[in-house]
Amino acid sequence: MKKSLPLHPQPFLHSKGLPEAVRSGPPPDERALIERSCKGDVHAYDVLVRRYERIMYQLAVRLTGNADDAADIAQEAFLRGWSHIKAFRREAMFSTWMHRIVVNVFLDHRKKNRNKKHISLEQSMDANEEATTMDIPDTAAGPEALALETEQQIELHKALMELPEAQRTLMVLFHIQEKTYEELVEITGLPLGTVKSRLNRARLAMRDKLGSRSPD
After folding, report:
1. What does the alpha-carbon distance between residue 42 and residue 45 come to, in Å, rounded to a whole number?
2. How distant, in Å, are the alpha carbons of 32, 63, 205 from that of 56?
């Protein structure tokens, strides 16, 4: 049975012994939540988790192509974040920090599970439709146009999953998550020039893979 990311009203971290967050009233200021989390306030951290859980799960799905792995990675990333929250730099963005943790957990998992089979894009969509919704226009396009669009998206997904993990990560962060170069530097810890050159190589690799799929 496939696992999915727990959503309200079930607390995301409840299975690990962390209590539910307070749900009433407007969301507290993020800086205040971080400060409280750094002081050991699990309620405050749970609010942060709920705020970013879907985004991080979407990232994990895009990186792994596997709904089960994505759920595991997202949960482990938030638990790892809780373990290291006191080391969080106050001037940084919490979302950027969590992106970096998700990427690191993904790379760690890939080292341990090199031969784990990816499920198909359709299966990922069944497991969490919102997390992997393809950008297919819901206009008056006919069935043939929609089928072509779907086929193109599937081919893009397959080519993306064939990239090495490092290249795939940059492609997902830049082209799907729409992160800036500066954010990529923060997430990956790489110099700007390295980020740009590796992203360019990833684009070329994608183009070659998609080109090899084109009919002669």
Report:
1. 5
2. 21, 11, 26
pLDDT tens digit sequence for 18-46: 333 333 333 458 889 999 999 999 999 99
Going from the N-terminus, what domains does the chain have, and what CATH number goes with each? 1-133 (1.10.1740.10), 137-216 (1.10.10.10)
Q: Cβ-count burial of 171 within 10 angstroms (0-12 exposed, 13-18 middle, 19+ buried)? A: buried
Question: Is-contact 81 56, C-beta < 8 A?
Answer: no
| Residue 173, Cβ density class (10 Å: 0-12 exposed, 13-18 middle, ≥19 buried) | buried
Termini Cα distance of the chain: 41
Name the pTM for this structure.
Answer: 0.68
